[in-house]
Amino acid sequence: MITLALSKGRIFEETLPLLKAAGIEVLDDPEKSRKLILTTNQPDVRLLVVRATDVPTYVQYGGADVGITGKDTLLEHGMEWGGSGGLYQPLDLQIAKCRISVAAKADFDYASAVKQGSRLKVATKYVAIAREFFASKGVHVDLIKLYGSMELAPLVGLADAIVDLVSTGNTLKANNLVEVEHIMDISSRLVVNQASLKLNPEPIRRMINAFASAIPA
Ligand code: PRT
Ligand code: MG
Prior knowledge:
The protein is α/β, with parallel strands linked by helices. The chain has two domains: 2-96 and 187-214, Periplasmic binding protein-like II (D-Maltodextrin-Binding Protein, domain 2), CATH 3.40.190.10; 98-185, 3-Layer(aba) Sandwich (D-Maltodextrin-Binding Protein, domain 2). It has nine helices and eleven strands. The strands form two sheets. The chain has a six-stranded mixed β-sheet with strand order 2-3-1-4-11-5. It binds phosphoribosyl ATP (PRT) and magnesium ion. Phosphoribosyl ATP binds at residues 9-11, 51-53, 70, 72-73, 96, 98, 164-171, 186, 188.
């Protein structure tokens, strides 16, 4: 049995067509079912639908053999763990694409603040990624951990800037914020538990290959 951990929410919607193209069809209706383990048309493949941020943990500890989640989540998890956490990352699935950026209020002079070496207050869900990014630039920051709606922080004076995901840019615009630095591009990745791969190489390799040929060109 191969257990595949999928991310709920926006990644899930983009994962379904990829699953289908890889020959995996969900038998339970994921929208309606209250079941936490979903069966598929392949008797030896089952699905878990969990929070995106929990996917690396399930795969790392072998609760799932394979997982799909954002590079943002994987990097943040890996940095907290000081490594890859035993996760093998064979594929960029090219879905749920966005970028991780620094944003600030349109009237905040970010460039001057950085140049003058002032201490910046930065709110983010991605504390590890932000810490490394600003350290590599030699910018002093006080990081404030938030779990959502980062865009609010500069508006109420909680922070000078945020580190968050941006796709269309509409959320920033609607809140009078501007992107001041691009940190990296993000997309969702397939991750594999390395022990599972050793134990069960054939079905897992087959699954990796099926996903590889299902990636939109
Ligand atoms: O529930 P949990 O805390 O685990 O995560 P979540 O609620 O953030 O999950 P969800 O369902 O939103 O999925 C998050 C994952 O989707 C991220 O980890 C990324 O890999 C991927 N992704 C891709 C995005 C976006 N694009 C995205 N635009 N996740 C979030 N956003 C948000 C962003 O944070 C911002 O608030 O959308 C807003 C910006 O969008 P635009 O289009 O207005 O720029
Ligand atoms: Mg959520």
